[in-house]
Amino acid sequence: MATPLHFVSSKVYPRLTGGRFNTVRVAFVLVTQLIYFGLPWLNWDGQQATRFDFDSMRLYLFGLTLLPQDFIYLAAALIVAALGLFLWTMLAGRLWCGFSCPQTVYTEIMIWIERWVEGPPNQRRKRDAAPWGAEKVLRKSTTQLLMAAFSLWTGLTLVGYFTPMRELAANLGAGDIGVWEALFALSYGGFTWLLAGHLREQVCKHMCPYARFQGAMFDRDTLLVAYDDKRGEPRGARRKQHAIIPIAAANVGRDDKPQGACVDCGLCVQVCPTGIDIREGLQYECIGCAACIDVCDEVMDKTGQARGLIRFSTQHAMAQQQPLPSLRQRPRALVYGGLLLGIVALSATGLALRVPFKVDILRDRAVMQRESNDGYIENVYNVRIMNTERDSRRYRLQVESAGLVRVEAPILQVAGDSVSSFNVALVADPAVLPSGSHTVGVRIVNLDDPSQVLHEEARLLMP
After folding, report:
1. Does position 367 have pLDDT exceeding 80, yes or no?
2. Which 8-state DSSP code applies to residue 163?
């Protein structure tokens, strides 16, 4: 009979640490949240700088308006994100997880709230193990209330990327928020509170797919948080300025025992947000946050030893005691980087050359062709112009086969960020153009900026 599997986990109480990597990690938390919470409030040319409008299916991005027809740019962005993930993981392992992943960032914020209300790890551990009392209820309630408030704020901010943020804030103040806005805000806020406030490291260890497939992108030259066991073992307590006995010289005397640099203080385990022991080697639970590096460097300073017992390195560099390899020694990185630069360059060129209006020319099915009073043949079309710029624009149609066909249409004016349809007639001389179906090239020129030109085709029928 098979033994059932049970999921056993205990809450991790990571110890607060300082150091250069902690400073960088805190900076990433502050910068990412400043961008996330501040961007919906930023205006650009009189409107919200970044917003996706579901009603009109338009993406507004710092004055640029993208339509469903511009799906290729979304595809390019997704490809760049995928290649960037492959490249970054191959080069730097899980640094994304440790410093800028939303789960890590929000977990860090929730731990700050918990630490501020309930105290350091030892106090929180004792309080959690103690029976419920007035103080415990008060502190736990305050913690959860603050976490829920922050989570709800993140949910409302997310909605602000789809509903105008200032309008959303005004409606919220008046108690008139829409059903869909409230549903999305509560859903995202609830997941933030659950995943970052309670599940925390369990998301990284058991739910995140990135932790599972990252091994396929690792190689022996991928940057990892690594423990130098050759220098650190065997572990043991020591005093400051205590001389290290080289392992190779351990056999000088039977009573002399070799001692490594690791003092076996266990601080690297206490500061780890996922609760692992980095000294046990490479583990998928390690998110590369470098908290163990900071605390170990402090211990090395106190014991008068060189820093770097735990450091960012690669499996190859640790085994061979060599410096980190350069990019020239890693052709796969050059391939990924070249593809990234190529796609970014092509996308940027496409955006720079993109004409900010769209035109559709469709034959009027109710009128095949007709003869005018002067003996010419008219074909009637419905011209649909979509102006993606904020200001009104004027357009004119020109027939490229001049002399055979002319356009009978006034200047076509379209309001900013809108679509207008016009009936336009193409007129041809039957003495010059033979009977049958003919393809006619049509130029649509923006009269307010003549450099913006689109070329379309129309089918002209002659009796």
Report:
1. no
2. T
